[in-house]
Write a structure and sequence with these properties.
The chain has 323 residues and is α/β, with parallel strands linked by helices. The chain has two domains: 241 residues, Aminopeptidase (3-Layer(aba) Sandwich), CATH 3.40.630.10; 67 residues, Beta Barrel (OB fold (Dihydrolipoamide Acetyltransferase, E2P)). It is 21% helix and 25% strand. The protein has seven helices and 16 strands. The longest helix is centred in the last third of the chain and has 17 residues. The radius of gyration is 19 Å and the shape is globular. 41% of the residues are buried.
Amino acid sequence: MASTSRGRIESVALGVPIPELRDWAVGNTGVRYVWSFASRTPGPRVTLQALTHGNELCGAIVLDWLMREALRPTRGVLNIVFANVAAYDSFDPSDPFASRCIDEDFNRLWSEDLLDGTRRSCELARARELRPFYDATDYLLDLHSMTDAAPALTLAGRHPKGVQLARGVGTPQMIVIDAGHRAGKRLRDYAFFDQPDDPRAALLVECGQHWERSSVHVAKQTTLHFLRHLEMADRGFLEQHIDPAPLPAQTAIEVTDAITIRSDRFAFMLPVSNLGSIPKAGTLLARDGDTEVRTPHDDCLLIMPTRRPRPGETAVRLARVVG
């Protein structure tokens, strides 16, 4: 941690506590910051993950809370993973965007050729270290947050099993059906998670804007509902901490296009915001060098437009409501 004061630091600028995770460093699996708890009752193998990106604090706050509550599974196996801790340890509240990663995006590495290859980076080393835990996972919940203010999103992948899992969990309200990024595979799309006939499934939940208190609330409620759906936690504990208010009906959004930046002259041609809607097909959305990017259909939703365009990365994903 970049701050000189360890422990639970409250930052006025961030609005959330920065959890002290060193208590969990040793782990109980032989891998740092990875904990695994097994019930005597058979059941699924479930992984809860935070810190896929080192500056996304909401998931770390929630998993730190679960560890301090000494949550144990009522059936199956429960893994708790703090992923890119190297990036997290570089977190500086005065420059909170800088610690997303050390060398590269941990969430673009999940193809077999990269994992089995010879290229090296801090994130690849950690991915290879954690890979056996994902290989032994039936259901994964990967907790993230977003740059801009927007409703929370569940990224469920491109197959019905992901949508079914998201609907079983019941929250957040918005479910995104998508195939990921051309820049590299996300963890939620790794191997069997992205195979339509394999029952193992993963959800990536964008819990809200970075460092807002509401993102912690969403992360906590989503995690508790995920555990309840899979019957993995004591009912009394869940009832104590799950909000009693009824959940709103969910809406599914299908990504129709992912706009990959081709040049260093990419620029949006109109104001953009996460889940902003452009009414008319053919509207000029952006220019990428000499290439125009236009909306492919009416009522075109924008999914997580980038603030920092870089060639090879996703500028925005375009979507429409499907149910």
